Give the backbone structure.
Amino acid sequence: MSEHEHIETETGEEPVSELAEEEPVSELAEAERQRDEYLDSLQRLKAEFDNFRKRTAREHEAATARATESLLKELLPVLDDLERALVAAEAHEEAKLEEGVALVHRALADTLARHGLVQIETDGAFDPHVHEALLAQPVEDAEPGSVVEVLQKGYRLGDRVLRPARVVVAE
């Protein structure tokens, strides 16, 4: 009998040839190799993403710190002006005090405007996107829904409202 002839065992099953055993083993080994490659690739990608996330967070913190530092440097002269106004107030020089406070107000407003701060307009009709109505009262010679008094100024930075204007609206 030759090697390739059909042989039955006592149980009636055919013996598995050596060639048939090698094929599934090599397919399994190939699948395991691919799995390991994919796992390694995935782990590298995860590590790269974690590094990217950490680097981005550090860069964001650094940019925020630089922006804060820049703004504070511009506000220091305003602080100096306020200190001079307080010294003038101690000497009871009312005219100089009023002039000093006006100077400080103007310096602060100019600094904030250079950074994009804009006062919200309150002339005309009430706009719920930029105004906050605290009171509604009947007013002669005023159109209903119009702003008649500003209780607190509102400001925006670019298109974003930082604080709505708090107003009284005519009924």
Observations:
- Strands lie at 117-119, 131-137, 147-152, 155-157, 160-163, 165-170.
